[in-house]
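Lab notebook page, bench 4
Experiment: in silico fold of construct C2
Operator: M.H.
Input chain length: 514 residues
Purpose: comparison with the prior construct
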Amino acid sequence: MTTLFRNALVVAMDDTRRAEPFRADVLVENDRFSAVGKDLPVPDGATVVDATDRLLMPGLVNAHVHSWEALFKGRYDNLPLELWMLLAYPILGLEPMPERLVYLRTLLVGMESLRSGTTCLLDDVIEMPTQSMDALDAVFRGYEDIGIRANCSGNIVNRRYIDTLPFVDEVLPPDLLAAARGTTPRTTDEYLEFSKEALARYDGRAGRLRYVIAPSGPQRCTDDLLVAADELSKQHDTTLHIHVLETKMQAVTGREFYGSTLVAHLDRLGVLSDRATLAHGIWLTDDDIARLGESGASVAHNPLSNLKLGSGIAAWRALLDAGVNIGLGSDGLSTNDSARMLDVVKSAALLHKVSHPDYRTWPTADEVLWAATRGGARSARLTDEVGAIEPGRKADFVVFDLRSVNFTPLNDVPSQLVYVENGDSIREVWVNGDVVVRDGRCLLIDEEAVLAELRELAAEYMERFATVEQANQVFEPYVAQIYQRCCAEPMGINHWSGDERTWLGGQAAGESGA
């Protein structure tokens, strides 16, 4: 298929113009952009679109999302990460989600993503109690059917969850410890075999699907698994995606488990590289940030999730100044609680304005849009494939209506994309050279049928899930005690917005801010 967009307003996000808008024709041939310029000739058989009232920009890239949580929208509030995980990722008693429901929940994430201008995502697929190949197949089929570009992980936790937290032997009663340690995690060899099979089955499918290596976190995985996972990632040139320093408890965990920060531990293991993407990266020291910059690693910044879970504020300007690549992510659908990347873009632009009074350091619209496109593309190992409108790249883009309320009057286009646009102006979304959304509807699936079946199956599943949540609440008072203890530990850094001394009785005096 060949389509020529005539006289469009273009925000190309290329190396030269970045977010600066310009008028041009854009030619799409098959799955790629083939030309961008003035008065392009019309190829034989091409469809010509008058785009005078249209804005074209690259599709947004969601650098970190968890589709497992799609059934938990609006379910939890006012819980920090470690307490929230007891409910959303229960330790005890959970049966695998039926494959049909996995497929439908994947379509739900894809639907919300595409409708709001996301054309590429990295789904860190954490299945509970463990990931099967059938469940992973349902995820890949869902994203293939809906038409989005997706990088889907085999997420692995090969330590018992309770043993990824500090101080548990001091705090938890012996019977609860025994129950929590009664599970048998997957071994390193089992994960490697699983990942090799997944790479053979899914990597490259449909020209837009990839398998991602994803050890869940340094404290959640053994050192031999981290090293082996990194080597497998290197062999297949795929992302090594890992949660690092999302919370202060994780900062304390690094000190307690390894006598260092978690980033320093990863660096000692030799697994920091330009293939590594660290999800969150909030409780970083200056030394951590320097290590990330030197290694070429990326950070997937999830501002809305970090706000809802009270995790803290990432050091946006310090990361950029150190040369760290930043992508933007929604995180899971029960810590945001949506996959709408335009919400994330606006929150990233606003959040860091309260981190420092020097307004010259605040995020610019250009920087935030870069993170939402090119930064996310790089973090997904798609540096030269997506994230910009320029010849040779995949034709993943969004068509906005400039006659909409959000662009009336038309002042500064990048700023209006960041602060004003909420998805209402989107008329089409293209992925891999195909129109997959038009006028707010996904074209490749029956939306009504999907949502109707999902409501029915989800209701049955959530009724059973509620009993599992109730059973796992037995851990809450003990994990809460550990949480409070970790919050009170002086670490020399503070990534909360407030002064810790106001509620820690001065225990954190002298800690530096974000």
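Observations: The first strand starts at residue 2 and ends at 10. DSSP finds 18 helices and 17 strands in the chain.
Next step: discuss at group meeting.
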